[in-house]
Design brief:
This protein has one helix spanning 6-28; strands at 45-47, 51-58, 62-71, 77-84, 89-93, 97-98, 103-111, 117-127, 134-144, 147-150, 154-160, 165-173, 181-186, 191-199, 204-212, 219-229, 236-246, 249-252, 255-262, 268-275, 283-288, 293-301, 305-312, 319-329, 336-346. It is mainly beta.
């Protein structure tokens, strides 16, 4: 049997002792904090996710969600604007300036009032990121409707003054909790409503009869019927009542748009003024609130029919068009008729626009 020499034994012991000391030294050495390194030059925004699915929620709920992001660049990041595609969604940032390596949040809030079915709303985040100056955040899901109006509104169309009209509306309540109607009010004395019947199976159904009276004034009708209920979530169910009450003198159209036109173009539109009974119509003057319009008045049939040719001047400045044309007549009942005018004039190529976004 071979034996180790004394020198060899001492050498092995020293090696083992050295390994043990080195192990303790490495284990006992304090480790400093990890140093963050930027992944891009300049400010750079990076979201951990850019879409949120709220699955299924009920109408009239407010949905909130937080989108977290980080400045992975080597310069301060500035959030300059957060805007939504509609008024139903808003976004608020926790800070306007995010230092390199720091995190921030965009809190999105979506109001589901008036929204039903599958929906998708978008927030646009504007920042100083030179590569991605606008980031798109999406909030999507399905909104369940609890109250169904059939039809969705009372629309009487164009009606001659002095002719009453009555329509029926059915309100369907799609919840298991009971719904009781405590009262009905109308926004105008020319609108009346009454409950015909209430059914409780399979859903709660309320049948309503709405009448626009013969004395409703000439002009655009924008009224509503307020149905008060015992529901905490839906204390009032609103039934819109819309239409146009016409006199003997009719104007077509009541509003028009030039849409979007290039500066220098001169599109035109036509307005008709007619009176069927008693051919004694006389248009005395036409006044426009817009200097950019040229209006030519022609009498087509004496005492019955007039036409207005409305032309946009080619030297009209760039910007939005919003004004009215007032038509003055000899009628005691309809002395002034009004037509709304809209549009947008785009600047010529190469010129700067002062049109607000």
């Amino acid at each position: 049997m071979q034996r180790f020499r004394p020198q060899t034994s001492r050498l092995v012991a020293l090696v083992v002792f050295g390994v043990v000391l080195l192990t303790f030294a490495v284990a006992g050495t304090p480790q400093g904090p990890s140093v963050w390194k930027p992944s891009a030059r300049g400010p750079r925004i990076k979201f951990d996710h850019e879409a949120y699915d709220f699955r299924t929620r009920e109408e009239k709920e407010k949905i909130t969600h937080v989108f977290k992001f980080k400045n992975v660049g080597n310069a301060p990041l500035k959030i300059t604007r957060v805007r939504g595609t509609c008024r139903c969604i808003t976004g608020v940032t926790t800070a306007e300036t995010i230092e390199p390596g720091r995190e921030g949040e965009i809190k999105a809030t979506m109001d589901t009032t008036g929204i039903f079915g599958r929906t998708e709303k978008i927030l646009y985040v504007h920042s100083s990121d030179p590569v991605n100056p606008i980031k798109k955040l999406t909030v999507r899901g399905v909104v369940e409707v609890l109250v169904v109006l059939n039809p969705r509104q009372v629309h009487i169309g164009r009606r001659l003054k002095g002719t009453p009209i009555t329509q029926k509306v059915e309100i369907v309540w799609k919840r298991k909790e009971p719904l009781a109607v405590s009262g009905v009010t109308c926004s105008s004395k020319h609108i009346t409503a009454k409950i015909l019947r209430v059914e409780k199976t399979p859903f709660h159904r309320v049948s309503l009869e709405v009448t626009v009276g013969a004395n409703a004034p000439i002009g655009t009708l924008n009224g509503k019927v307020n149905v008060r209920t015992t529901s905490k979530k839906w204390p009032v169910i609103v039934v819109p009542v819309t239409g146009v009450i016409e006199g003997e003198i009719k104007v077509t159209p009541l509003a028009f748009s030039f849409l979007q036109v290039q500066q220098g173009m001169s599109p035109s539109r036509r307005i008709r003024v007619t009176k069927a009974r008693e051919p004694n119509l006389r248009v005395e003057k036409v006044v426009s609130t817009l200097d950019s319009l040229e209006i030519e008045l022609k009498e087509i049939v004496k005492g019955q029919n007039y036409e207005l040719h409305v032309r946009l001047k080619p030297d009209s400045p760039a910007g939005r068009i919003s004004g009215k044309i007032h038509i003055y007549t000899n009628s005691l009942e309809q002395p002034k008729l009004t037509v709304a005018v809209y549009g947008l004039v785009r600047p010529k190529r190469g010129s700067r626009s002062t049109t607000p976004p």
